[in-house]
Amino acid sequence: MSAKTKRMGTIKQLLQMHGQGFKYKVIARSLKMSKNTVKSYLRKVSESGVDIKDLLELDDPVLEMWFHAGTAAYPDKRFEDFKERLDYLVEELGRRHITKRLLWEEYRSDNPNGYMYSQFCFHLSQHLLARNPSMVLPTNRERSSLSTLQEIRSPTQTVIQVRSSGALCL
Q1: Across the strands, what pairs with 161?
Q2: CA–CA separation, 36 vs 18, rounded Å?
Q3: Backbone Cα Rg of the chain
Q4: Is the pLDDT of residue 155 over 70?
Q5: How many Cβ atoms sit within 10 Å of the Cβ of residue 142?
Q6: Contact 9, 136 (CB under 8 A)
Q7: Which tens digits make up the pLDDT trace of 27-60?
Q8: How far apart are CA 122 and CA 129, in angstroms?
Q9: How far does Cα 36 stand from its chain's mean position?
């Protein structure tokens, strides 16, 4: 695998595309990674014997532990405490004049051994990214390998139809 780990959203897209029957080369081009990286992730899945559908249902931190064993942040008790607070933190961030710094100061007063500011912001940002997933649509050349009509559901459940001509229809 490459030295830089991939985002879990990208890995989930890789698994979805493989499940839909796309070739390694098409997956690699559309996700902007090497063919060998695609092979490496899919080899790990096939060797484990775990069904792709089961992996796609996992939360991002759990999936990251599955693919990138050795990530020290998640088995930590601090992360468990932080995870319990995430809904509150996201709700508070939506209020006026509430900043990450204020939330972190409150977090540290409640949990003196908790994360420092940079780790607090990192984990909060990762959670916010996971809440709003995005998908890379294939290029025109790769669309030709798609069936004549494919449905892609966005986070708001709007149905986007990709026709073989490359036109997007809402």
Answers
A1: 151, 169
A2: 14
A3: 19
A4: no
A5: 18
A6: no
A7: 999 988 899 989 988 888 888 888 888 888 877 7
A8: 11
A9: 20
